[in-house]
Recover the amino acids of this structure.
């Protein structure tokens, strides 16, 4: 039976002193046993045993002792030089710091877009390396930058009671639509940790099939504002609205929305109370789109409402045309482990484009719009408006402290 590497190193430490003091005949016997145990060739085995523990004087004060159990780490040729990493970091920030699995599939397309708008200028070699880079390598190279980045919120919608018996319940497992048009909707509150008084809400609308996401801020969660925002968002969608699924909050479960859906032949369903997983698609976008864009501060003024909606106008283009996402396509349990399989990361624009149910005229309009968009420019505009919101919040906080 062959020894493990750990056992081989122990054998060297034990046999080397005996081997170095033994006669020629004894050395032969020790060598044969050592070769049989380790599988080394005789030449290498002899070298290992004879060199281990040898001392050599470098100068009057320094003596080095050989230990063949310690091996020098083999140097590797660096493929991704600093220039490649520098460009990768720039692209990563433009793409809103997404993970390698989402960035790798769209890397080539993003580079072409940024080169077209002269946002980056790179050599052919650097471009080839970026395009061929795996998701794991992207994450490894960005590990240092990721440590520089890192928020929580609370729910503000309470279940309503109106029309509950007339609006059917729908759960996560029942979503199996194979075309765009069936959406989940939810409100995200911007109370900043203080739920007193009125504060802004964001209506978040997420398509199940394509992950297309639309957002719009309203001054509070009164039914009239939410209903108007939903009608406005419906006009922006690049596909026909076929179905709505909401939570059981009174801002959605009301006669206005119910009658509107009946009139427009839109399927209207609701989730079970206190079961967020029933609305998991929109809940995920509440964080990845809304919270990442406007954070957890309190917004309650008309000026903030205007700035947030201006930000959302750029954000919808940036998110839907340039932010790839992965969809769960299979989930199975093996013993205590749950194994999930996701599809290849694609943007909502790509998913809509690939859908056979979307008319060619709508696809042509989307493609025309996509050609005009510069992701780096959109990101700069979003960042500028985010900075405005932060400065306004700081001014409000300072005024409150002065009054107190």
């Amino acid at each position: 039976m062959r020894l493990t590497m750990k056992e081989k190193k122990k054998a060297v430490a034990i046999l080397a002193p005996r081997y170095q003091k033994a006669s020629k005949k004894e050395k032969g016997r020790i060598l044969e046993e050592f070769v049989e145990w380790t599988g080394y060739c005789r030449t290498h085995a002899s070298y290992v045993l004879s060199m281990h523990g040898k001392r050599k004087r470098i100068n009057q004060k320094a003596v080095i002792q050989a230990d063949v159990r310690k091996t020098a780490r083999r140097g590797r040729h660096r493929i991704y030089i600093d220039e490649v990493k520098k460009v990768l970091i720039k692209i990563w920030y433009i793409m809103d710091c997404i993970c390698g699995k989402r960035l790798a599939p769209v890397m080539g397309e993003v580079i072409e877009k940024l080169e077209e708008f002269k946002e980056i200028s790179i050599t052919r070699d650097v471009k080839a390396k970026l395009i061929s880079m795996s998701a794991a390598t992207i994450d490894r190279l960005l590990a240092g930058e990721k440590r520089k980045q890192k928020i929580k919120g609370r729910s503000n919608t309470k279940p309503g009671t109106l029309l509950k018996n007339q609006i059917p319940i729908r759960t996560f497992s029942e979503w199996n639509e194979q075309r765009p048009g069936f959406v989940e909707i939810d409100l995200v509150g911007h109370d900043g940790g203080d739920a007193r008084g009125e504060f802004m809400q964001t209506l978040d609308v997420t398509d199940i099939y394509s992950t297309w996401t639309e957002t719009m801020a309203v001054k509070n969660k009164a039914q009239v504002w939410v209903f108007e925002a939903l009608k406005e968002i419906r006009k922006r969608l690049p596909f026909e609205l076929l179905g709505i699924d909401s939570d059981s909050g009174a801002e959605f479960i009301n006669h206005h929305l119910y009658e509107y859906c009946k009139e427009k032949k839109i399927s209207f369903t609701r989730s079970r109370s206190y079961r967020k997983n029933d609305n998991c698609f929109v809940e995920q976008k509440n964080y990845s789109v809304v919270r990442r864009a406007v954070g957890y501060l309190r917004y309650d003024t008309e000026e903030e409402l205007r700035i947030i909606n201006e930000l959302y106008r750029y954000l919808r283009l940036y998110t839907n045309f340039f932010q790839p996402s992965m969809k769960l396509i299979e989930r199975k349990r093996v013993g205590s482990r749950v194994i999930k399989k996701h599809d290849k990361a694609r943007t909502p624009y790509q998913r809509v484009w690939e859908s056979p149910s979307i008319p060619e005229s709508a696809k042509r309009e989307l493609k025309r719009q996509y050609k005009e968009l510069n992701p780096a420019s959109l990101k700069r505009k979003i960042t500028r408006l985010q900075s405005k919101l932060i400065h306004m919040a700081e001014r409000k906080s300072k005024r409150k402290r002065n009054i107190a």
